[in-house]
């Protein structure tokens, strides 16, 4: 009987349940998608040892972040569920149902909802992974065979994490529902959480908040002071700083605004009061949202920035993309197709295992190198191209041996590269080497790939040896995998953060909407214009969306500084990710607005 | 008659149920009028259609057929903002429960209709204080509804209903949630307003005691006006109360 009652009330509010259910399913789908990469060591390993370790580490870090976020998210989803069910359960208890039975019902309800959502989420996630698999493979390298959209360890991880968390939630719900006084459950809707804060306390909170934020920002501006602790310190100080700032400033601002005559015009007073009542309860949510907003925006910005850095980073090892010894006619054809920035051709004499260059050819045709930046942490981003003076033969020799020497030592072909003015003592075959620097390594990639392949075939012993270094093309391949991996992860994380953030905000606002229905009904009966009601709702939600956005953007602006070592100029072209992000955020706002109005402003007169 | 009638209801009919649903006729054919300064009670058994009638008079719902004129205007034709403005300017309401917004103070609650009309803040403050003095609720003004008793809340609701000096005040069982002492106070207050301000009052109630404060009582039975009682000038309230009880006795047979 009790089950029937419970089921019927679920049916009655199926829309709210659908919202909750789909939110949970999407969250677990994202988690699954992430795990198909993070939990597939085989796949991560295909890209070579050094890169794989790094990527594995990066994805591990991402998985922890995502897990943390999931925890927060489920917490909000659960409180939404609780707020929906409180009254019903209060009623059951009042009617004399034993608490133990109620407890079991609640436990079961949470678990059923949770496990169904997780299963659906995994199914969705598998579909999503299939859909995105070409994208994933494209981003993470060519190892198509190693990536599996259907990946058992990912399923297991998702199940373990989600079911574990739901188990916690179910137990928590049971305890809350059975321990709370009945009256409190029944009157959950009428309770007002508002209490006026003393000015002194507000001031203390304000100072604490600002101080924490300043510390957080300082740490991010000077990441070298605290090294690896920077991120932890920043996350902690910013989170608490945001919390106190919201608590103090918004409270004060609202109390202050209410004094003005503007507060008595139309529904202004009502909106202010709504916000003031909510702010106390929303401070925590807003803080969470602000942090998620900052991370989502930060991740997407960094991800997009990383993409631009692939070329720069891969080209710090040398000035030339490829070096080709005695190009074949096939290679020559390919070279002609390239759009080149520099093409240098030198001759040398192969004397046994010694390669000897005549120094004078570097006068007419200067050889270039990359000068790495001097500032700690900015070596790569400050790197510059420069000419090696022809008289510095040692420097020339060591730079040339990067391309021709060291990497061929193992195979026993070359053990020394020399540059000297007088070649009369040297005997041996004369060969030609061509150094190529393309205008755009990314655009030339397909041709470079073929060229490099052909060049490697000349050294059968070193065919699969990655240390056969022909030029920046080698680095480009590795960096691209690493950075695309990072980029992919950053964007994926950014989108998950954004999705969960929106969902959290939605749950929180919607769980408040049930108390709002009679309020708006009353306002309408008192003769409020329909348009004013809508305007009031729009404004109220806009403020709840806007506050985290403003503070979140500030966090991001400071936080980007952390990536100065990775991105040449983290602040360049910021508008693009910001606009994309802003549009998505705006979309969420409009969507939530619509739903909220649908729920709260039910039409009465036809 | 025409000039001083506040409400004129002509042949009101209300059928509940949408196209596919089962139809239920809650009101069959109701016509009556309320004059300026009138104090009308609407009585009847549960389910007889009292709330239905009030909702139509108060413009919360539209009749299936018939018209309602308030202050000479056919309100069944009003829509949207015109309807909202009409409510805000001409009518006051007191409901059985949930009258006040719990996130506003009493003063803000009372001033709300004036805010909605865009009155300047200073004027709102003055009017609120004046009306609070008249109803002896000045000490409650800065409190939130959660800090008030049921009776106090209804007095605040009463103040809010009167703040825009409406032509007519509607109440749907405003004493329903009050004990007899608080109910008596509220009714006394309504009577006083009715006499001093000449505000017409229409009160739905199932309780004979509350009804005895009215000047005229309409009995609804099965969606029609079954009977009408008018209190004579010479008649005392207890006497009228007895008459209502007798009427209810015969009515329910
Ligand atoms: N929205 C509705 N849809 C369908 N039927 C309705 C609706 N509202 C009321 N009714 C029906 O109309 C009839 C009159 O209802 P109404 O609420 O007017 O009664 P009432 O006289 O106010 O009763 P009470 O004294 O119990 O409040 C009832 O039989 C009720 O079931
Ligand atoms: Mg009724």
From TrEMBL, chain A:
Subcellular location: Cell membrane
Keywords, ordered alphabetically: Cell membrane, Membrane, Transmembrane, Transmembrane helix, Transport
Protein origin, superkingdom: Bacteria
Any one GO BP annotation for this protein: transmembrane transport
Main localization category: membrane
Domain ABC3 transporter permease C-terminal: 61-180
GO terms for cellular component: plasma membrane
UniProt keyword Transmembrane helix present: yes
A matching Pfam family: FtsX
Transmembrane region(s): 17-34, 54-77, 105-130, 150-170, 200-220, 226-246, 285-306, 488-510, 541-568, 574-596
Topology in the lipid bilayer: Multi-pass membrane protein
Family (UniProt): Belongs to the ABC-4 integral membrane protein family.
Protein name listed in UniProt: ABC superfamily ATP binding cassette transporter, permease
From TrEMBL, chain B:
Highest taxon, organism lineage: Bacteria
Ranges for domain ABC transporter: 7-247
Pfam family of the protein (one): ABC_tran
GO terms for cellular component: membrane protein complex
Keywords: Amino-acid transport, ATP-binding, Nucleotide-binding, Transport
GO BP of this protein: amino acid transport
UniProt GO molecular function: ATP binding; ATP hydrolysis activity; transmembrane transporter activity
Family (UniProt): Belongs to the ABC transporter superfamily.
Protein name in UniProt: ABC transporter, ATP-binding protein
């Amino acid at each position: 009987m009790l089950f029937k009652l419970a089921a019927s009330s679920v049916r009655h509010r199926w829309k709210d349940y659908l919202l909750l259910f789909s939110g949970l399913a999407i969250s677990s789908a994202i988690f699954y998608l992430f795990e198909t990469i993070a939990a597939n060591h085989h796949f991560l390993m295909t890209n070579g040892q050094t890169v794989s370790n790094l990527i594995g580490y990066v994805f591990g870090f991402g998985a922890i972040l995502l897990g943390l976020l999931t925890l927060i998210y489920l917490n909000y989803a659960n409180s939404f569920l609780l707020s929906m069910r409180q009254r019903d359960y209060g009623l059951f208890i009042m009617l004399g149902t034993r608490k133990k039975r109620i407890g079991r019902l609640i436990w079961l309800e949470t678990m059923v909802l949770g496990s169904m959502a997780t299963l659906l989420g995994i199914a969705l996630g598998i579909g999503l992974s299939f859909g995105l698999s070409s994208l994933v493979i494209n981003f993470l390298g060519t190892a198509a065979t190693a990536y599996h959209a259907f990946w058992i360890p990912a399923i297991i991880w998702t199940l373990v994490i989600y079911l574990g968390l739901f188990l916690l939630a179910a137990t928590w719900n049971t305890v809350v529902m059975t321990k709370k006084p009945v009256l409190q459950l029944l009157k959950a809707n009428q309770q007002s959480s508002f209490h006026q804060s003393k000015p002194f306390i507000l001031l203390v909170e304000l100072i604490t908040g600002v101080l924490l934020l300043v510390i957080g920002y300082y740490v991010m501006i000077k990441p070298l002071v605290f090294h690896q602790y920077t991120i932890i310190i920043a996350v902690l100080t910013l989170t608490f700083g945001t919390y106190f700032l919201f608590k103090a400033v918004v409270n004060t601002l609202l109390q202050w605004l209410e004094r003005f005559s503007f507060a008595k015009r139309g529904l202004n007073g009502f909106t202010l009061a709504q916000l003031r009542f909510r702010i106390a309860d929303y401070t925590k949510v807003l803080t969470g949202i602000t942090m998620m907003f900052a991370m989502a925006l930060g991740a997407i910005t960094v991800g997009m920035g990383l993409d631009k850095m692939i070329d720069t980073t891969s080209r710090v090892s040398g000035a030339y993309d490829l070096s080709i010894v005695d190009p074949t006619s096939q290679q020559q054809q390919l070279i002609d197709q390239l759009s080149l920035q520099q093409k240098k051709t030198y001759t040398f004499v192969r004397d046994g295992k010694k390669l000897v260059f005549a120094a004078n050819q570097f006068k007419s045709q200067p050889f270039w190198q990359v000068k790495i930046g001097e500032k700690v942490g900015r070596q790569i981003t400050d790197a510059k191209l420069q000419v090696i003076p022809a008289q510095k033969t040692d420097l020339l020799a060591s730079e040339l041996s990067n391309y021709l020497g060291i990497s061929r030592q193992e195979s026993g072909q070359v053990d020394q590269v020399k540059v000297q003015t007088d070649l009369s003592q040297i005997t041996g075959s004369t060969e030609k080497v061509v150094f190529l620097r393309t205008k755009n390594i990314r655009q030339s990639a397909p041709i470079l790939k073929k060229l490099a392949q052909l060049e490697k075939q000349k050294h059968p012993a070193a065919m699969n040896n990655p240390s056969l270094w022909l030029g920046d093309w080698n680095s480009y391949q590795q960096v691209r995998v690493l950075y695309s991996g990072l980029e992919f992860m950053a964007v994926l994380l950014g989108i998950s953060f954004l999705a969960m953030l929106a969902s959290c905000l939605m749950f929180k606002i919607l769980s408040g909407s049930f108390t709002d229905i009679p309020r708006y009904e009353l306002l309408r009966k008192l003769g409020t214009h329909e348009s004013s009601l809508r305007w009031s709702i729009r404004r109220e939600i806009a403020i709840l969306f806007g506050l985290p956005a403003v503070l979140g953007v500030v966090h991001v602006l400071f936080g980007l500084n952390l990536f100065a070592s990775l991105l040449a100029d983290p602040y360049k072209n910021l508008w693009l990710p910001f606009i994309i992000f802003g549009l998505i955020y705006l979309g969420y706002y409009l969507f939530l607005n619509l739903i909220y109005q649908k729920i709260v402003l039910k039409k009465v007169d036809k | 008659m025409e000039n001083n009638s506040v409400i004129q209801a002509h042949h009101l009919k209300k059928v509940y149920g949408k196209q596919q649903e089962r139809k239920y006729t809650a009101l069959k054919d109701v016509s009556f009028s309320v004059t300026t300064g009138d104090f009308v009670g609407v009585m009847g058994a549960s389910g007889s259609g009292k709330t239905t009638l009030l909702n139509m008079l108060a413009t919360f719902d539209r009749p299936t057929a018939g018209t309602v004129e308030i202050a000479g205007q056919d309100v069944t034709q009003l829509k949207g903002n015109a309807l909202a403005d009409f409510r805000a300017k001409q009518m006051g309401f007191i409901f059985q429960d949930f009258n006040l917004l719990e996130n506003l103070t009493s003063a803000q609650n009372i001033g709300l209709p004036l805010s909605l009309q865009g009155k300047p803040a200073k004027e709102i403050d003055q009017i609120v204080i004046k009306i609070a003095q008249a109803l002896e609720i000045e000490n409650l003004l800065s409190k939130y509804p959660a800090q008030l008793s049921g009776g106090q809340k209804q007095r605040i609701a009463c103040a809010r209903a009167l703040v825009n000096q409406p032509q007519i005040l509607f109440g749907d069982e405003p004493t329903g949630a009050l004990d007899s002492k608080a109910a008596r106070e509220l009714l006394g207050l309504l009577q006083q307003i009715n006499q001093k301000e000449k505000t017409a009052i229409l009160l739905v109630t199932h309780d004979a005691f509350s009804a005895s404060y009215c000047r005229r009582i309409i009995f609804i039975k099965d969606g029609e006006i079954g009977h009408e009682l008018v209190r004579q000038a010479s008649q005392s309230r207890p006497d009228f109360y007895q008459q209502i009880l007798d009427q209810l006795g015969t009515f329910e047979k």
